[in-house]
Every structure is written in structure tokens, then in C-alpha cells.
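Changelog excerpt

This revision adds worked examples to the README so contributors can see how folded entries look when concatenated. The first example is reproduced verbatim below.
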Amino acid sequence: MICRRRHFSFRTEEAYIHWIKRFIFFHQKRHPDTMGIPEVEAFLNHLAAVRLCSASTQTQALNALVFLYQEVLEKPLGNMKGLNRVQQRHRVPVVLSTSEVKDCLDGMSGTCQLIAQLIYGAGLRVNECMGLRVKDLDFVAGYLSVRDGKGGKDRTTLLPKQLIAPLQKHLLKVAQLHQSDLNRGAGFAAMPGALYKKYPAASRSLAWQYVFPSSVLRLWGDGSMKVRWHMSDSTIQKAFKVALRQANIHKHASVHTLRHSFATHLLGSGTDIRTIQLLLGHRSLQTTMIYTHVIEATKSVTSPFDNL
């Protein structure tokens, strides 16, 4: 409930619960109220030394336990002098070339292909693409709106012109599916917060339906409403992995690599870094600067071997 009051994202809430459970089981199911700094340090040091977790993983676990003790149990942990932090490593993201992106996208079909094209064409995160509603697409202005993205932020980004016609054709099928749901007494869309109470009719409007809806209906709220959520993230992840293998590309890539490729290709074509930061929704310009390393590492440099 405290996470909900703080308007934490569902993924953050899920992650915090996961780490709190791991912490409790690590200490033989002792109640956190009977433990303190030594037990927290032992768990976090175990993650670093035995589980060999990354710096970001250890930090997430630390944040979850700090939140538990400070906000839930109201017993702040204070300074943890015995905590061994994992050293942060700055890694250059995996990026596909334009020809590799084309090969991957051409190897996909149907809705999964459209999703992958949109992720690359607009620089979206997977969950941002899946969370798009019909009302978030502006075909006239040529942009789309990302609602409640990472960090709870909204932003606008590009809507590729070549995807306008395929998306409009896709939305006709979504509209037909929605009408079929309405005829069966369903047709609700899950809405953020308590908006479904404030605007009860909006939940059954086409505008609030997901652009990429699930194939099944599920009960929501008090159990009286049948809603159609968005497709599962794993669906596009698996389809992209298959396309990657079929394209004979051996890079350690995932569908999120399309977002990295979007940023790198924009930078390579001369788009300024500040614009790319806004399109990606990065809070800090320093985060966006990582893509300059991909470009500058090989830009205007010839290997001496090539001059032999």
C-alpha cells in the first residue's frame, strides 16, 4: 500500500517485493523487524561475493531493503559501514547496423513485426510500446505520446511516416475486436489510478484501448469488468530472438537493442544529442552520451593494418 501511495510503478513494486522475500528467505524466514544492519549487510555482500550480481542489481536490492526499514517498519538502517558495494562498470550498448536492423525486421511478420518496427522507429522501450493506447497516436501531427514511462514521466517522440498506414490498418482490426468485446458485455480497458471511477464511460471507449491488445479477456477491479490488457512483453522478445537467429546475426542483442540502434543511428546522421535525449526520455544528458562512444570509437579512424 505504501508503494501505491507513493505512485511507484508496478515493476518497482514487484522488484521490491522480490528482494524483500529473498532477504527473508536468506535469513531462514526471520521477520525483518528482528533484524537490522548486520543482516542487511550480510545479504547484500552475499549478492556481490557469491551470487556475483551487477552493481545495478545490488543497488536495487539495497533500495528495496532501505524502503522496507525506513517506510514500512519505520526503523531507518543508518550508515552501513560493512557493506561492500559492487563497482559500477560502464558498458557500451550493443548496436545493430542499419542493414542488420532491416534483416531482423524483414524476418518478422504480423503484429510482432509492427511492434519491432515501432520500437526502432520511435526509440521506445518494450513496455512503453506495449502500453500505448489508441489515443496516444497522432497521425496528423506525426508523433506519439508515451505515458508514465520510466520514472513516471510522459514524453512525445517520433511516429515514422512509413508506419502510419500499417498502424491505421492495424487499428481497424483493434476497433473490430473492441466492438466484438462490447457486444459480449466486455470492452473495458484497465485505466491508471482511479480514472475509471472519474470517467466510467471512457474505460469502454476505443481511445483507451491498447494499440497491441492481448488475445484474452481478464477480470479486473471488483471482478465485474472484463478487460483486455496489452500483449505480453515476452511475445515480442521471443519473436525478435527468432528473427535474429534467422538473420544469422551473432551479436548479444534483444529487442531493446532496437532502441539503442535508434539513438546511435540518429546520432550518426547528425541529430544533436539534446534532441536524442528528449526523444529517449533520459533524465540526464550523461545517460544519452553513452551513444557517442559507439560513434566516436571508429569514426574517421583507419586501422594501420589497412595501410600495409
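The second example, added in the same revision:
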Amino acid sequence: MKITVIGAGRVGSSVALNCSIRELGDILLLDIVVGLPEGEAMDINHQLAERGIDCTVRGSNNYEDMKESEFVVIVAGVGRKPGMTRMDLLKTNAEIVKAVCNKIKNYAQNSKIIVVTNPVDPLTYLVIKSLGGQKTKIMGMGGMLDLSRFKEHISTVTGISRDSIQAMVISEHGENMLPLVRFSSIGGIPLSEFITAKQSEDLINKTKKIAAEVISLKGATVYAPGNAVSTMIECIVKNKRAVLPVSALLEGEYGCNDICIGVPCVLGSEGIEKIIELKLDENELKVFDLGGQSVKNAIENLSLTKI
């Protein structure tokens, strides 16, 4: 199994490390910065050697090396700075992702693709349209990362082990994300049995704002995104058919058409095997629709239909 990660900065290197530790395959770190991917690969390999893990990580500046990749993870792009929203990155990162797509067309057209670059939902749409690929094989990471943050907040508020928590976050990976208290549980018991209405509201707000707080403190989110991507790849490689929130192309689901946005999906060997359509209540649907409109506006701003 060959996994190519395009972008060897902190998040890309975290993806490579997490995939290697799970022994999902050999990793190619690609970057335009001379020396960076090679240095990161060396550092990761030293850790893997001590742990007795035989997956190898290689660094390169040559896109031809991505040939025969089963997976391509797109991390390339500029990151958020303190005070920025994900949508502030749209035009700059769209140009970077377009260039990456041209390389994928040449060298890894048949790979499954996971988009990490922000804003992830419109850029996942851009990748699908640019490559003309199967929508089941191209997805964005957003919801998986939001889910990890939501679960951490639930554990903190309830004082119950993270291992007992099942949760779900959908909609836009951005200002209109939708942590679903109503579809979350602890040990199979509805989350609402453990928290008050005020705590529920606080959990939602904290989940929406925590990424900006991390960025203000350390400049970037790194470890949770790396884990989120490796979890997605593991589900596909091992045909787990697990239900995870990922950014997927909707064609009528949730009342949306021709946009990518975070929804629960069954991930198996073919990629996105099924989109699960939850019955949202009026308030939940209102937030989801705001997210859908935000993504739609971003797509229109980029004139992606002309690609």
C-alpha cells in the first residue's frame, strides 16, 4: 500500500506519522520545499525503527514519485493565522489545489483522495470537478476533526472516559459546523441524560471555537488532523465499513445538490459506500442549511463550474 501526502509541513508530517504507526502502508511525503520532506521522513523513520515498525516514509520534491499511489492526501496550502476564518484562505488555496490536481491527473489518477486543505468543503468539490473522479473516492476530512474536538469536550464536561463516547458533527467545516447532541451518546445512553440544556449549548459553542483558540496559542492544529486522516484511511484499507463524518458530494441528500459538505458516511474498501441521511429537526436543519449556503457561495465565488 502506497500513501502519498502532498504537503510536508506539520499537518502533513502528522498524517505520515499516524499512518505509519497504524502500519497502513509506505508513505511518500511530497513538498516543493527542498529538503523539508526528506528531513521529516528521516525523523519519522527513526521513531518507527525504535518501535519495530517496518513501514517506510520517503521524502521527495518530484511528483513523478507518486505513481501507483493507492491514496493521495492533499495538505498543501497556507494555514489559518490567528483571527482568520477558513474561508479567508479560499482563493489562495484553490490555486494551489488546482496545481496539485494537475499533478494527480498525470501520476495518480486512480487513487483515492482525501482533502485536508482549508476551506475543506469547497476544495473537496474543486478536486472532484478538476479530476472528474468518482465521488465515492474523493472526500474531505473536516467532520472527523470536528468530531474529535466534540468528544473531548463531552468527556471534560461529564467526567466520563473518552472511550465510552459516541458523537457526530456534520455540516460545514467552519463557522456553521453542527455538533449533534441529539445524535450523541455515552455507552449507548443519550448524551442528553448526562448534561443540561445550558451545557449542551456550551459544548456546541466550544466545539465551533476551539480550533481558533489552538491556532492563537500554538499557530496551527497538527496532531488531531493527522489522526483524523489516518482513521479515514484505516477504515478504507481494512474495509471496516465504519460510520464517520466526512465531506462528501451531495446529490439531493439533506436537500442539497452539487456541493460537498460534512455528513455521516459508511467508509469501506470502495471509499464512501453510503451517505447516511439523518432526520434533522428544525433548528438542526437551519444550521445545516447555513453551512450548505456558505459552501455554495464559496463554489460560486471560484466559478468552479467552468473547470
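Reviewer comment on example two: The mean pLDDT is 93. Residues 143-306 form a domain with the L-2-Hydroxyisocaproate Dehydrogenase; Chain A, domain 2 fold (CATH 3.90.110.10).
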